[in-house]
Amino acid sequence: MSLQARLRDPAAWIRTVDILVILLALSLPWSTSLVGIFGVVIVIAMLPFFDAGAFVRTVQRPISWVPITLFLLALLGTLWSDAAWGARLYAVGPTAKLLVLPFLLYHFERSERGLWVFIAFLVSCTVMVMASWTVAVFPDLTLKAKDVASRGIFVKNYIDQSQEFALCAVALAYPVVMLLRAKKTVPALLLCVLALSFIANMAFVIVSRTALVTIPIMVAVFGVLHLRWRTTLMILCAAAAAAVLAWFASPQLKATIDSFRRDYQLYMEQGTPTSMGERLEYYRKSLKFFAEAPVMGHGTGSTRGLFEAAATGPAGLAAAQVVSNPHNQTLYVAVQWGVIGIVVLYAMWLLHLLLFRGEGVANWIGLLVVVQNIFTSLFNSHIFDFHEGWMYVVGVGVAGGMVLKARAPEKAGTSSVS
Question: Is the pTM of this model over 0.90?
Answer without folding.
Answer: no
